[in-house]
Amino acid sequence: MEATGGDDEVSGELTSLAHAVSLPAECYGNDPDIEMAWAMRAMQHAEVYYKLISSVDPQFLKLTKVDDQIYSEFRENFKKLRIDVLDPEELKSEAAKEKWRPFCLKFDGIVEDFNYGTLLRLNCSQGYTEENTIFAPRIQFFAIEIARNREGYNKAVYTSVQDKEEEKGATNGGDKGANSGGEEEKGANREGEKEKTNKGGEKEKEAYKEINKSGETAM
């Protein structure tokens, strides 16, 4: 998948998660190798997903083979849950766990590793920083992120990255125009728009290949 202008920012944010992705030692039998393997997988998953919603309009992303079922079940059971900015209590309190448990168990055998530990952003307009990240079962991640994509909340990330790329392109185009004259500037802008359209199409195709290749193992 083609890198986006926000790649360096993503890498920096993920680095800050180094100790945030550590579960209590008893969960791993005090085996640091297992803990590190889990942390690396969780961080890799987060990085791949953030690149996807930065590169392609999230409304067109398909995360699993059963997105429609997940979304339908989610909104049937959690009609009023606010998903743009999550309240951890709505996920982690004892009352919340009791409500989430039947929903999650419905996807046992349908979604691979449905209860595997995954990183979930609290505020969908922000990245995977330590302060903006909590642990969630994989099916909970899918339910919330599919809803965020379909309801337009994740578009804030995509728009922000695209705006930065456009500003960069406009700055470069302005410099060329100043050196080459008015007509050449118009030509450069036309070529720039054509190139941007082509690159956008390529990014979307690559993103779909990535999500399809990952299937239900990487995601």
TrEMBL record:
Gene3D superfamilies: yst0336 like domain (1.10.3560.10). Residues 34-158 form the Polysaccharide biosynthesis domain. GO terms for cellular component: cytoplasm. Residues 183-213 have a biased composition (Basic and acidic residues). Residues 171-180 have a biased composition (Gly residues). Residues 161-219 are annotated as: Disordered. Pfam families: PBDC1. InterPro entries: PBDC1-like_dom_sf (IPR023139), PBDC1_metazoa/fungi (IPR008476), Polysacc_synth_dom (IPR021148). This is Protein PBDC1 isoform X2.
